[in-house]
Write a structure and sequence with these properties.
Elements lengths: L21 E6 L7 E2 L1 H10 L14 H13 L6 E9 L5 E11 L8 E8 L1 H23 L3 E5 L5 E4 L1 H7 L20 H12 L4 E7 L7 E11 L5 E10 L1 H35 L6 H22 L5 E2 H8 L11 E4 L5 E2 L1 H20 L9 E11 L2 E11 L12 H8 L8 E7 L2 E9 H4 L8
């Protein structure tokens, strides 16, 4: 196995032979008897080295030799404990990690000071640490490849780690060690919503808020901050993951769209005003009743357009359409003008125009001839979604009760077209208007996907 060795005088310490660690006990003065336990002797034999550790330097990986030499050379009698890790190069060419612990015991009255050299095999532990470090390095490279600002935030709001994009955005040195409060890196106006989001995340809830950042001499940047609590197995919050996405360009586009929509609103209102002026100047008698009716219908269209523009032309809620078009009735109490339906349900733009004009016509008829023309009648406007043949259907109803007796009109004018025929132009839609003795009943139905947004979320 190894070369023939002349062992130095040995101190008998049989208890050390029972331990797996390699143990050498020697006098601090480096003279006198020494002890090497069985594990130490076996390792020296495998390396083909003498027993004293100072003779093992040639078997150490060259990069570790200087550290071991320094430790053995610089230790003083007052030093009680030193430790370091190093690699031994085995004869087969493989290396193995060991932990060296050097413990000095003070001299007793009847003896001299001794020291213990304890070598512990930590090779598997080192391999595990290296694997973890490699995974951490891969994680960091993945995070640094992202253009989003990705942060780990402690529950107290201090910054634990941040990727390269985040460091560049907030002006933080990536080797600073972090530890500063995250919100202190943001302008004051971001602190209030940021504090609220951090509190929610620290309590185990997902949170989100819009914030800004600004470095000296640079324009403001807008961020969509999403905070996610990372939980322990017992569901307690360990730390908080925050992903901040730069939405500056999106905000600029939104502002530009808002400006264009406002301009569109202004121009469309001007166009409708021009139509009204042309009507007054064209007809022989501008004070004729039909002129007023026509102007009111144009105003109804304008109200629907206002709602659509306010919703950035994505639609308008059914509730807003109904309330804006029934506003011509004046301040009727809720007991007489009842509006019942999901306030969040939203018409698509084409539907908002058609249904809005129909509701306006029904309102004006109710004021002139129907349930709103006396002191006791009521109008109920209701809407909702129902499931028919596994498909969502939107239904809406206008129902009058308690008004004067209603007779079916002898002729069907433009109002009838607006109330019945115009809504039917929506694909799959049907509408009807019945004049019952107790009041008018108007109904409308259509496939939900053709008239409202996000209809399927209710099924």
């Amino acid at each position: 196995m190894g070369q023939t060795q002349t062992a130095p005088p040995d101190i008998s310490c049989p208890a050390f032979d029972l331990l797996p660690d390699l143990i050498c006990m020697e006098p601090v003065s480096n003279t006198g008897t020494m002890h090497f336990n069985t594990a130490w002797r076996q390792q020296a034999d495998a390396l083909g080295m003498p027993l004293p550790f100072s003779e093992w330097l040639p078997a150490l990986v060259p990069a570790d030799q200087a550290e071991i030499t320094r430790l053995l050379r610089d230790i003083t009698p007052s030093d009680r404990f030193r430790s370091t890790s190093f690699r031994i190069l085995n004869p087969d060419g493989h290396t193995r990690w060991f932990l060296l612990r050097l413990v000095q015991c003070p001299a007793t009255n009847d003896g001299e000071a001794v020291r213990l050299l304890i070598l512990t095999d930590i090779h598997e532990q080192k391999r595990h640490e290296e694997a973890l470090l490699q995974k951490a390095a891969i994680r960091d490279r993945m995070l640094n490849a992202s253009v989003d600002c990705i942060k780990e935030i402690a529950k107290d709001g201090t910054l634990v780690h941040m990727n390269t994009a985040g460091c560049e955005a907030l002006g933080v040195d990536s080797i600073s060690g972090f530890g500063m409060r995250w919100l202190d890196l943001l302008p004051p106006e971001a602190h209030l919503p940021g504090d609220a989001a951090l509190k929610d995340a620290a309590e185990g809830q997902n949170a989100r808020f819009m914030g800004i950042s600004q470095l000296a001499g640079q324009p403001v940047r807008h961020w969509d901050n999403m905070l996610t609590p990372l939980l322990n197995p017992d569901q307690s919050v360990e730390t908080i993951l925050c992903v901040s996405r730069d939405v500056t360009i999106q905000r600029e586009h939104e502002q530009r769209i808002a400006l264009l929509l406002n301009e569109l609103s202004h121009r469309s209102k001007n166009m409708l005003a021009i139509f009204q002026a042309l009507i007054r100047r064209t007809v022989p008698d501008p004070t004729a009743p039909f002129v007023k009716v026509l102007e009111e219908r144009i105003t109804s269209i304008a109200r629907s357009q206002d709602l659509l523009i306010h919703g950035e032309w994505t639609g308008a809620t059914v509730h807003d359409v109904v309330t804006s078009q029934t506003a011509v009735a004046g301040d009727f109490p809720p007991t007489r003008l009842r509006i019942e339906g999901d306030p969040e349900l939203q018409f698509v733009p084409d539907t908002a125009d058609r249904i809005g004009l129909a509701i306006y016509e029904l309102t004006t008829n109710a004021i002139k001839y129907g349930a709103l023309s006396n002191d006791t009648g009521t109008v109920t406007v209701s809407w909702g979604l129902c499931d028919e043949e596994d498909k969502p259907v939107f239904r809406m109803c206008w129902k009058e009760t308690g008004g004067p007796a209603v007779a079916r009109p002898e002729r069907r004018g433009f109002g009838s077209v607006v109330i019945e025929h115009n809504p039917r132009s929506i694909p799959g839609a049907s509408s009807s208007c019945r004049h019952e003795p107790d009041g008018t009943i108007w109904t409308f139905s259509a496939p939900a996907e053709n008239v409202v947004r996000c209809s399927t979320q209710l099924f």
